Amino acid sequence: MKSTTVKYKYSTWVEIIAAMFVLLFLYTALAKTYQITPTTNVLRSLPVLSEAPDTFASIVVGMEYVAALLLFIPKTRKIGLYSSLGLMTMFTIYITYMMIFVPHLPCSCGGIISRLTWKQHLFVNAFFILLAITGILLMRQNGKANQDEPLPVVYT
Amino acid sequence: MKKYLYGTVGVALAIGLSAYSKPKKIAFPDWYRFQFIFSSYSQAAVENETVTFWGYGIPVSGPGQFSGTCDGTNDKACEIIVPETSTVNVSGIGRRIKSAQAGDNGSGLVSITATTNFFNYRVSGGANVAGWMNKD
Questions:
Q1: Gap between the Cα atoms of A25 and A110, Å rounded
Q2: Positive or negative: CA dihedral A63, A65, A66, A72
Q3: Is the CB of B85 inside 8 Å of chain A's CB atoms?
Q4: Residues linked to residue B90 through DSSP beta bridges, in sequence order
Q5: Lowest CB count within 10 Å: A5, A114, A153, B81, which one?
Q6: Which one-letter DSSP state was computed for residue B31?
Q7: B44: Cα separation from own chain's centroid
């Protein structure tokens, strides 16, 4: 009984965390889809990405859609959380690069997130990285709780 | 079905928020592209901070829209792109890179001088010249 309660708690939190990432990724991906030009403009000015800014922008948006889908489907949620962690880490590296080398450029992010300063953006990313790690750990605990649960006894 | 509940709320919120978000106009500054003016391009030539010539190209709304003297081969250090805020428009002379970016020691714009070509300016000396070049 206790194990079932704990499992329920874990899975609920994982679902909430996944939903938060779905909201984040889908919102920013949709915002970028509606208005891709500012994103490509910023990417164009970066030495590493200036060769194919449209391609890079499309890849990033595509990855956000895929991550949101993986998180939405319960069976692929674990992969989704790992993808989210990877994406957020990648974005954080990008932000750190921008902060150091081109702080005068606007963020190429989507929606209201683009209005954040680089520092605020870094904090938001750090929060989501921690959230992804928490989700992964909770999912592991959930799996453990599943293993600990005794097999159902069938009386015939 | 309950497993999809929070996810569905997330999807609905994302669509709703993006639908009602005002498309934000990012204030992208005008960019000015300065190109290395060379008779024979070489790494040593562009790295020579004492005799470096930068020619002013055309104002662009975003980088990557100017084709000038750089031929696209090994020309990473051939040009610098600076935002409008890093340039100054001097009456009768034209657009110049601001002294700080040009490596000037603070005594003004003297380190950038017009050459015979109206649009060419010489940037002489200063560690920041190398700094700009390294960004490309």
A1: 9
A2: positive
A3: yes
A4: B94
A5: A153
A6: E
A7: 22
For residue range B4-24, what is the model confidence (pLDDT) as tens digits? 888 888 888 888 887 776 665
- Answer whether A145's CB lies under 8 Å from A60's CB: no
Contact by Cβ (8 Å): B120, B131 = no
Contacts of A15 in chain B (CB under 8 A): 3, 5-7
- Burial level of B88, CB count in 10 A (0-12/13-18/19+)? middle
Residues of chain A with pLDDT under 70: 1-8, 45-48, 50, 103-106, 108, 110-111, 144-156
pTM score over 0.80: no
Tokens of B130: 């190398």
Q: What is the pLDDT of residues A33-65, one digit of tens each?
A: 887 777 777 777 666 676 777 888 889 999 999
Mutation for testing the B interface, residue in A11, A30, A76 having most B CBs under 10 Å? A30
Which amino acid does the sequence have at A66? V
Separation between Cα atoms, residue B119 and residue B102, nearest integer Å: 16
- Tokens 């194990």: give the residue: A3
Tokens 């010249």 label which residue? Answer: B129
